[in-house]
Structure formats: structure tokens, C-alpha cells
Specification:
By secondary structure, the chain is α+β, with helices and mostly antiparallel strands. It has seven helices and eight strands, in the order E-H-H-E-E-H-E-E-E-E-E-H-H-H-H. The strands form three sheets. It has a four-stranded antiparallel sheet with strand order 1-8-2-3. Strands 4-7 form a two-stranded antiparallel ribbon. The longest helix is centred in the last third of the chain and has 15 residues.
Length: 185
């Protein structure tokens, strides 16, 4: 499922919440007061969670639970019927939401930068998102630079060539002289 929603922050990056506060936020989502998303590791895109999926996560909170992100796909293996649809184990800390809602109910510390903040670095944010997406796709080191270029071109078409080069230089795991970030000691 493709979702063109721009999601600002992972909830654990935004809030320092205890289990009870996490449960309350999930209740707000179930009531329809807040939308929650998850990064679908198969499609590397944010996917809006349904009421049923939020209820599953809340009932298992704080433990992780398996949620299915695709419609049921019947498969037969060793004479048993199963579901071949893509699923992921997740809990509250794996969810994402729009920070506008959270700012209203929970003022953010200056440690967390959001778009519009004077110190917000959009290229760094894009680099983090791109790196996570490519790692989730299990891209090999040798093809990483090309895949990163393709990902950035598709998802951030307004980036300048120099911005794309800077982002790739930061996230490229290939530490050879031909490109990539410096080796980390």
C-alpha cells in the first residue's frame, strides 16, 4: 500500500513516555484522534495503521506483536494453510505520527528538531530516512550508491545534485577511496 503522507518523527524520538502514557496515546489513535503509521519493511513506505492493528498493538503493549500489513494471502505448506501476507513485529516504539498533533499535547524539548525549527537539518533527516529505507531493503554495499540515487530521485525529486551527492557520501557504507563515508574507528 503506497502512502504519500509525510511523517515527521518516530514516537520514541519525540517523547519520553512511560508505558501508561504510551497506552493513552494508542487509545487516542483507536478513538480516531491521532493517526499512527508504521514503516512497512517490505515496501519501505509509511503505512497508516487500521483500528484493528492499533488494538492489537495496545493489547500487547509494551511487548511486540505481529501485525499483518497486507490482505490475507493463503498458502499451503506441509499440508497446513497459512497466511503469506507481509507481517511485522512491532510495538508503540515502532510507530510514527505527525508531530503537529504531539506538539499540542506534549511540548517538545529542544533536543528534538522538527521541520520549521531554525536548527532543523532537512538533508540530515532525508539521509536518515534514506539509509533506513535502503537497509530495510537489504541493499548490498556494492549497489548502495546507485540504489540511494534512485531512492532519492524517486522520493525527493526537488533535491539538487549537490545535495544528493552530500547525502550519499554520508550514508554510503562503501568506505573505499572511490566514494562513501570515511571509515569509523
Amino acid at each position: 500500500m503506497n502512502n504519500p503522507v509525510v511523517v515527521d518523527q518516530n514516537l520514541t524520538q519525540l517523547l519520553k513516555v512511560d508505558e501508561e502514557r504510551g497506552r493513552q496515546l494508542l487509545s487516542d489513535g483507536i478513538k480516531g484522534n491521532i493517526s499512527f503509521f508504521i514503516m512497512n519493511t517490505k515496501s519501505s513506505q509509511f503505512q497508516l495503521l487500521t483500528l484493528g492493528q492499533l488494538q492489537q498493538i495496545q493489547s500487547a503493549h509494551p511487548e511486540k506483536t505481529r501485525i499483518y500489513l497486507e490482505d490475507f494471502q493463503m498458502t499451503i505448506f506441509n499440508g497446513k494453510v497459512g497466511n503469506a501476507a507481509h507481517s511485522q513485529f512491532c510495538n508503540f516504539s515502532d510507530l510514527w505520527t505527525n508531530s503537529d498533533y504531539l506538539q499540542e499535547i506534549n511540548p517538545l524539548d529542544k533536543e528534538v528538531l522538527i521541520p520549521g525549527d531554525e536548527h532543523y537539518a532537512s538533508e540530515l533527516d532525508i539521509a536518515n530516512i534514506t539509509q533506513r529505507a535502503l537497509i530495510n531493503q537489504k541493499v548490498a554495499e556494492k549497489g548502495f550508491k546507485e540504489q540511494a540515487q534512485n531512492y532519492l530521485k524517486l522520493n525527493y525529486p526537488k533535491l539538487s545534485k549537490s545535495a544528493v551527492s552530500r547525502i550519499i557520501a554520508i550514508i554510503n557504507p562503501d568506505c573505499r577511496k572511490g566514494g562513501g563515508r570515511p571509515k569509523i574507528d
